[in-house]
Amino acid sequence: MDKRLTPARPDVAAKYLEGKVEADRFVTGEEFEITDGVTSVRRDPFAGAMLDTQALRGERVTIYDRNDEGWAWGQLNADGYVGWISDLALYPPGPAPTHKVTALRTYAFPGPSIKIPPMDTLPLGAQLSIVRMTDAFAVASNGHHIPRQHVAELSFVEPDFVAMAERFAGTPYLWGGKSSLGIDCSGLVQIALSAAGTGCPRDSDMQEDGLGRRLSETEMQTLRRGDLIFWKGHVAIVRDAETIVHANAHHMATAIESTKGAIARIAATGSAVTSIKRLD
After folding, report:
1. Residues paired with 127 in a beta bridge
2. Is residue 105's pLDDT more than 90?
3. Which terminus has fewer CB within 10 Å in the chain: N or C?
């Protein structure tokens, strides 16, 4: 089983895995809500541990274990990723989300004024329970005021996931990142596709295995907008016949560049294209 998606350790595992894995004890787990705008999901329970992914405001996570240093171990409900999260980012679930953030990022204010210090920064895709609308603000169940033009109902979908990815151009590259403050290649694909209403795994190898259909050699000669180009450990989104958009460590940013140039540059490092997938 993929450890990234399997909440199982030698000492503890999720109850639903009983009989499938070995562990000292099996627990049902308890659901919590992510209350920070963006919070880290780390491989190990300390602040300097590797960042595997991030969870966004409003996401639910099932927690199976805690330690005495303020870290909780669990599985994100949305994409199934397993890791350690700071206890400070977790609260019992509140009212079900009704809206989501559609701006790249926005602020949550403690009252109906943009002149008072904001309480948090909310990324694209953060989910909120909105109880009322004013002319200027969407008011959340916790009293936070979010600029009305920066949110939409959960049912809203972006018409073009590639255009959504293009909006991240210039965003700093961050391994494990999933927001406009920092994002990685597969995070960009996941966030963009999710905004367009398409479910998407977290990491590039999962995306290569689970998304779309593999193009034949003949089809590869005519790429279409929205095709996904995969290398080992990397993914890019085709914009048109000549360019791609991808978050990458070469530019340390989300960049738009020549498809042929990127393929040649990456090939020079010893990595060839492993597949090209089409989502239709």
Report:
1. 100
2. yes
3. C
